[in-house]
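Data availability (excerpt). The following record was deposited with the supplementary files.
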Amino acid sequence: MTVFTSGLRYLKEGVTPHMWCPGCGNGIVLSTLLRAFEELGYRNEETVVVTGIGCWGKADDYVVTNGFHGTHGRALAFATGMKAFNPRLNVVVLMGDGDCITIGGNHFIHAARRNIDVTAIVVNNLNYGMTGGQVSGTTPFGMFTSTTTYTNPERDLDICAIAEVAGANYVARGTPWHGFELEANIKEALNKRGFSVVEVMSPCPTHYGKYNRMGTPVEMLKKIREMALPKEEYARLSPSQKEGYFPIGKLVDRDDPDFNTRYDEVRSRAMKG
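Predicted structure:
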């Protein structure tokens, strides 16, 4: 018999309803994360949720684990220091696309390069949602935001591709629509030693959806569902057919040594002289 966990033991009392807009996917992502915590038996005193600035960065307000709310784009820098100093901690970093790859892009690359043993859950809503819907590094070419009123002239960044080439051990992508699959990916990421990234393609109906006339929050979520293809199906498409779609599921899974393992080896050699 399948037993479904709620994750409520990790949710602070008296914090609902949450502050996120109707139709935002953050609530779904938070619930999948907390269920994963419960299924893996995470202990509050051994777990740190690190956030930066942004809509998804407010998630640490709702959890009872240790929390650290840092500056914009610097969540991974703080998380790296925590894990390097205390390898026994479960360090989970919650970032939006602006916090992770636009302002914090350099930290993201080097966290992957170091293969530091932290898990990054990146909610990508294709704009700076909290501050008014400005263009971000993941806003697709030709789309509208509050600061690209005649469409975005720049190409967008692929968070998962950058994580892969920079050296992350685990990379996956999901959506709020695919909740059970997303939870499975988050559990795998939390269990993986080394740098793990789960990107969640999530709707922002308040800003991005409004500027691009994507309809109601439900219609926007259905559109994301249509764009999301299992990676095997996506791989069979020609380059021209891939336009407007993205692969979901586990994209990278390898077991390269993490930062702390390699650091301990260097330290051991140094102690021997």
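Summary of structural features: DSSP finds ten helices and eight strands in the chain.
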